[in-house]
TrEMBL record:
The chain crosses the membrane at residues 9-27. InterPro entries: Bax-like (IPR053195), MGlyc_endo_b_GlcNAc-like_dom (IPR002901). Keywords: Membrane, Transmembrane, Transmembrane helix. SMART domains: LYZ2 (SM00047). Residues 112-251 form the Mannosyl-glycoprotein endo-beta-N-acetylglucosamidase-like domain. Coiled coil: none annotated. It comes from Planctobacterium marinum. This is Glucosaminidase. The keyword Transmembrane applies.
Length: 276
């Protein structure tokens, strides 16, 4: 074979290999997203004695500083779950919405999340993904902080001090918590007791995200997401009408607490950043 011809063939072959190598990742089918890490680490340190603070400002800042890291951690877990669901939804769409678009492990994990958030899972569909994504989303930390302050009397209630229950959460199994001292004879609820702050915060967030009483909160949040508006504490507080028998008065009190305590929550955030 002529030398120049061999040279041209060699150069052409190298070029072809380079082109294929460049295009190879784009020619492959969409790859499954990495599994989301959902382990909820336990934080069971002693609760500070918030009643010992003489200055109101110091008490508020200490309270917010204690709760803030756990709230952010639990919201990060929820956000990682949401990201995982969105990735599976994209994969399903990329594979023409076929029933077998997900592998067994992905399908099983999706079923677990559906159960955790109380969403029926008859199979993959746009309706299913939309319902699940409506529930799997964050709660603004400012709302969590002021509701904890409101429900626990700034961390001084016995439910908070002895059971990591900063949100007045109830349970209905005998022995699951504290029997309220002023419980009516025809009532059987208890105030839940948790093993750690992690468990208490996680249970509260999960309740807001799955219980039918807070579907207004989730609707408001979904609309804000869809219209690309910030998910604010003041807006989502409007969805807590059924959290208290006080209804609208309770909502307005929370919104006022958000405004009054914003500077203290900002201080807690700045301290957290400084302390790493």
């Amino acid at each position: 074979m002529h030398k120049s011809l061999r040279s041209r063939l060699w150069i052409g072959g190298v070029t072809l290999i380079g082109v294929v190598a460049f295009l190879y990742p784009f020619l492959l089918p969409p790859q499954p997203p990495a599994e989301v890490v959902t382990t909820r680490l336990v934080r069971a340190e002693p609760i500070p004695d918030f009643s010992s603070f003489q200055q109101v400002t110091e008490k508020k800042r200490a309270f917010f500083s204690y709760l803030l890291p756990e709230i952010e951690k639990q919201n990060e877990i929820i956000l990682s779950q949401r990201t995982f669901i969105l990735a599976l939804q994209s994969l399903w769409l990329a594979k023409d919405q076929k029933p077998d678009a997900l592998n067994p492990a992905q399908h099983e994990r999706l079923a677990e999340l559906a159960q955790e958030y109380n969403v029926k899972f008859p199979g993959l569909s746009a309706t299913f993904f939309n319902k699940l994504l409506t529930k799997v989303d964050i709660i603004p930390k400012e709302l969590v902080l002021v509701q904890a302050a409101n429900e626990s009397a700034w961390g001084t209630s016995r439910f908070a001090r002895q059971g990591y229950n900063f949100f007045g959460m109830w349970c209905y199994r005998k022995g699951c918590g504290f029997v309220p001292r002023q419980r009516d004879d025809d009532m059987n609820h208890e105030v839940a007791k948790y093993r750690s702050l992690s468990q208490g915060v996680a249970k509260y967030l999960n309740t807001l995200n799955r219980h039918f009483a807070y579907q207004d909160l989730r609707y408001i949040r979904a609309v804000l997401r869809k219209t690309q508006q910030p998910i604010t504490a003041e807006m989502l507080a409007e969805g807590l009408l059924h959290y208290s028998e006080r209804g609208q008065a309770y909502v307005e009190e929370l919104q006022a607490m958000i405004r009054v305590n914003r500077k203290h929550m900002k201080y807690a955030q700045e301290q957290k950043v400084e302390n790493g």
